[in-house]
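Narrative of accomplishments. A recurring question from our advisory board has been how the design workflow behaves on a single, concrete structure rather than in aggregate. To address it, we present the structure tokens for one chain from the evaluation set, followed by the sequence designed for it. No filtering or post-editing was applied between the two.
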């Protein structure tokens, strides 16, 4: 079973924009953590197109999934 540190380490492999997109999209580390922003809202904040914001989200999630698989996490049950 991976440690908490092992689970959060992959965030370091994200680019600043990927990290920002995930934080904003899923309301992580914000005052209003219950709701995230739409890709349109994120794109406006970052000064990129909506398509680029979507690409950043997809890339970040793929990196995180890959890193978790490398650490032996195959399902949510492995970390809960």
């Amino acid at each position: 079973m991976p440690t908490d540190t092992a689970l959060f380490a992959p965030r370091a492999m994200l680019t600043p924009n990927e990290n920002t997109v995930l934080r904003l999209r899923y309301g992580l580390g914000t005052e209003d953590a219950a709701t995230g922003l739409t890709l349109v809202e994120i794109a406006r904040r970052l000064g990129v197109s909506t398509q680029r914001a979507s690409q950043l989200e997809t890339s970040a999630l793929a990196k995180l999934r890959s890193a978790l698989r490398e650490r032996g996490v195959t399902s949510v049950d492995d970390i809960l």
